[in-house]
Design brief:
about 400 residues; globular; 15 helices
C-alpha cells in the first residue's frame, strides 16, 4: 500500500513539474517571442499573467471537476490541456493565437494545482502527509529551474518553437505515467469512498478553509511581489547587471527545493503544523523589514536570500498539509484545496502591481510596508485556524 502511495505521489509530482515547466518557458525567450510574434511588452506580459487569471477563475471549478470525474480523469484533462496548448503555441504565428494557447495551458495549471495535492491527501494519512506534501511543494521551483536552464540550449538547436515542442513531449510523458499509475485508493477503513455526489456548496462553508486560503493569498501577495521587484532593486540600487541581479534574487526560490523537502520531514517528525506555519510567517515578517535595504555585499546577499528562502519554503508545505484537514469531511478535501489555489493565484496576481505602485510613489523603503502587511495578515489568519488534528 505504501509503495503504491509513493508511486502515485511521484506520478502527480511529475505532472506538476510538467505544468510548471510549460508555465515558465516564456521568460527565457521573452525577447525572441516579442520579435517573432510582433508583440509589445504589455501583450508579452499577459503571456505569463494569463496563468494566474486562469488559476483564479478555475480553482473552484477544478474542485467541481475533481468531485465529479475523480482524480484520474481530472488530472488527465489537465495534462491534456497542457499538451494541446503547447502544440498550438508551437505553431502560433501571432500574439493572439499564442494567448489562446497560453489560456488553454492555464486551464491545465488550474486543474493540476488542485488535483495533485488532493490525490496525495487521499493516499496519505494526516500524520504522514508532511514529507509527500513537502516534495510536492517543490514542483514550481523544480519545473522553472529546469526550463530556465534548458530553454536556451534547446532554442539554439531549433528556435523558440522547439521549446514548446519539448514542453508538449514532457507533458505527454507525464500524461502516460499519470494514466498508468494514478487512481484513488480502495475503500478506506472507515468505509467511506472518495468521489460520489457531494454538495460543493457545503464544502465551501468551512471557515477554516477560507482562513488557510487567506493566509496563503496574503503570503503570495508579499512573496511574489518581492520576487518580482528584487532584481530591479539590486540592479537600480546596487548597480548590478541584470543577469547577476536575477541570479541572486532567484536564490530565494532555489532554496525552496531542499527547503520544502526538509519542511515536510520536520512536519512529520514534530507535528504542530499550525505552530510551524505561524513561526514561518513571523520569521519572514522580520526578514522582509530589510527586503529593500539589504546591502550589496555578496556574502550578505546570499545569506539573506538563503535564510529568507528557507523560512518561506515551510509555508506551502504547511498550507497543503493543513488544507485537507480544514475540510468538513474528507470528501471535501478537493474543495478545500480549490479554495487555497484560488487564494494563491489571487495573491500572486494582486501583489506585484500593489508593491510596484508603493515603490513608485514612495521609493524602495515604501515597498516594504505592503510586504509586511501581507505577512501579518497571513499570521493572524493562521492563528485563527482550527483543524481536526489540533
Amino acid at each position: 500500500m505504501k509503495r503504491k502511495a509513493w508511486a502515485v505521489m511521484w506520478a502527480v509530482y511529475l505532472a506538476g513539474v510538467a505544468v510548471a515547466l510549460n508555465q515558465f518557458k516564456v521568460p527565457p525567450v521573452m525577447q525572441v517571442l516579442m520579435e517573432s510574434l510582433q508583440a509589445d511588452m504589455a501583450t508579452a506580459g499577459w503571456l505569463m499573467s494569463v496563468f494566474c487569471i486562469a488559476g483564479v477563475i478555475l480553482a473552484l471549478p477544478a474542485a467541481f471537476l475533481l468531485a465529479g470525474l475523480g482524480p484520474k480523469n481530472s488530472g488527465l484533462i489537465g495534462l491534456g490541456c497542457i499538451i494541446i496548448g503547447a502544440v498550438i503555441g508551437a505553431v502560433a504565428k501571432s500574439a493572439a493565437i499564442m494567448l489562446i494557447a497560453r489560456t488553454i495551458e492555464g486551464v491545465g495549471l488550474a486543474l493540476i494545482a488542485v488535483v495533485a495535492p488532493a490525490v496525495i491527501s487521499m493516499w496519505f494519512e494526516p500524520h504522514e502527509r508532511g514529507l509527500p506534501m513537502g516534495i510536492w511543494a517543490t514542483w514550481v521551483p523544480v519545473g522553472s529551474f529546469l526550463i530556465y536552464n534548458l530553454a536556451n540550449p534547446i532554442a539554439k538547436l531549433g528556435g523558440w518553437t522547439s521549446i514548446w515542442w519539448f514542453g508538449a513531449v514532457f507533458a505527454l510523458v507525464a500524461f502516460m505515467v499519470y494514466s498508468a499509475i494514478v487512481a484513488p485508493p480502495q475503500k478506506t477503513a472507515s468505509g467511506s469512498e472518495e468521489g460520489g455526489a457531494i454538495s460543493i456548496s457545503h464544502g465551501l462553508k468551512s471557515i477554516n478553509t477560507w482562513l488557510i486560503s487567506i493566509a496563503f493569498a496574503a503570503f503570495n501577495f508579499s512573496f511574489i511581489a518581492y520576487a518580482t521587484w528584487a532584481p530591479t532593486f539590486l540592479a537600480e540600487v546596487h548597480k548590478m547587471d541584470p543577469g547577476a541581479a536575477s541570479f541572486y534574487a532567484s536564490l530565494v526560490t532555489l532554496v525552496f527545493i531542499p527547503g520544502g523537502i526538509f519542511a515536510g520531514w520536520v512536519l512529520d517528525r514534530f507535528g504542530n503544523r499550525k505552530g510551524i506555519l505561524a513561526a514561518s510567517f513571523i520569521i519572514c515578517t522580520i526578514l522582509v523589514l530589510w527586503a529593500f535595504k539589504v546591502g550589496g555585499n555578496v556574502g550578505i546577499l546570499v545569506s539573506y536570500y538563503v535564510i529568507l528562502g528557507l523560512a518561506a519554503s515551510f509555508v506551502p508545505t504547511c498550507v497543503f498539509t493543513i488544507a485537507p484537514e480544514t475540510a468538513i469531511n474528507p470528501q471535501f478535501a478537493g474543495v478545500a484545496l480549490g479554495v487555497v489555489i484560488l487564494g494563491q493565484n489571487s495573491g500572486m496576481f494582486i501583489g506585484p502591481p500593489v508593491v510596484g505602485q508603493a515603490i513608485a510613489s514612495g521609493g524602495w523603503d515604501a515597498g516594504v510596508y505592503p510586504l509586511v502587511a501581507g505577512l501579518l495578515v497571513s499570521l493572524v489568519a493562521t492563528l485563527l485556524i482550527r483543524t481536526k488534528t489540533e
